[in-house]
Request: fold
Amino acid sequence: MRALLSVTDKTGIEKLAKGLSDLGVSLISTGGTYKKIKESGVDVSEIEEITNFPEILEGRVKTLSPYVHGGILYKRDDSEHCETVEELKIKPIDIVVVNLYEFQKALKKGNPEEIIENIDIGGPSMVRSAAKNHKDVLIVTDPSDYDELIERLKNDDIDLAYRQRLAMKAYSLTAFYDSVIARYFTKLTGEESKYKTYGFEKESDLRYGENPGQAASLYNDPFVTGLMENIEVIHGKEMSYNNYNDLNPALELAQELGENAVVALKHQSPCGVAVGSDVYDSYIKAFECDSQSIFGGILAVNGVVDEKAASKMHEIFLEIIAARDFTKEALEILTKKKNVRLVKVDFANESVREEIRYLNGKVLIQEKDFGKDEVNVVTDKKPSEEEIKDLLFAQKVVKYVKSNAIVVAKGMKTLGCGAGQQSRVWALESIKDHFKDRDFEGAVLGSDAFFPFSDTVELAHEMGISSIIQPGGSIRDEDSIDKCNEYDMSMVFSKSRHFKH
Reply:
């Protein structure tokens, strides 16, 4: 048997080479892989001895040869194939061990020339050739498979199922690799192809999914550097599917609101949000919005959690506290609870620009809702400067609340978030009914979509709300405007709808 070894990730390659050599397998190798195997004392031939041709074009061409691909691709049970390779003096290659240039690492460095040079040509070609002819050739692309390969060869335990499994991993690798390259050129050109490709790399299996009966895993998207890209869990239990799912919108909202923003979130919807003078002030205000729902929820903090803030957070049960950082004193307090997950987040990372929803046989892809709200006054009364600040704050929050959504706010903190109602007025009613003793006098209201009727304005007036922001666009807009004028309330149209279904 002959094996061709050509790897960028050289983890375990000397051990593999020795194991193969000890089994009587002849080795062929290239460049740095050849040098590493040779230095380990294992006998190995250079690729030029096989191709009868030197590496050219700075290594761009070294394995693209019929002496390589012919030795890989010919069918061992086809007499014409066997006669052809014998006539051309092409020798079989029975094992191919290849992994690919580090395109992802070059991508992160951002040097265009280095990026292009790290588009592997020979590697994927050999992988695909060997995987196509997996019935006759073993293709190994993952260093974690080296030990099993040696054991199976020792025990003569190479069956078709094993060959197919290696081929599956090989094609998964090349498809993933090409997807990252395709996305690079999509970003470079600013244009979209007919074909949309995403490559995800598995990080870990999760204990279960949304419910215990559902299997789930966590994958990383290597092409983007989003908010979740390099989060660091510094304390607490293993993160769950629901933890990751809830953490994502909480971080996005905290990033959008800026310095010192605190977002309390439960079951995918904010329950308390505030931007105060510091993290402690913001937390107290967010907590006061809904001290019941925050229990067992998560916090996203766009700032540093200090001792004062940590002392208050420690008083209740929180699943996750995610922040830019924690002071030493804060960690001493918060780590007293064994299970709370403390997560460090880099809010400087850019939020991902796309959302993907996988349906039953279809895929929906859309740009994320980064639309900015305008302030177009449509009533006789104009909102004050403070009210305008609160109106824009409420609309930033409402983007993250399940539709139909209403957010009531005052002083850059939420007083209530009405989520997921079939009727818009019901969303406001849920806030009024849930916080019966709350003073809403002088608060503002944000709505994710237009008012089809004036009933929401009527209830807002009854609650003491003084100003409203909504996209406008209903054929009944004038009804709501007239009702605001009747009650001496101000209303502005934002022009941006914020459905979140």
About this structure: The mean pLDDT is 92. The longest helix spans residues 160-189. The radius of gyration is 30 Å. The CA atoms of residues 94 and 201 lie 28 Å apart.
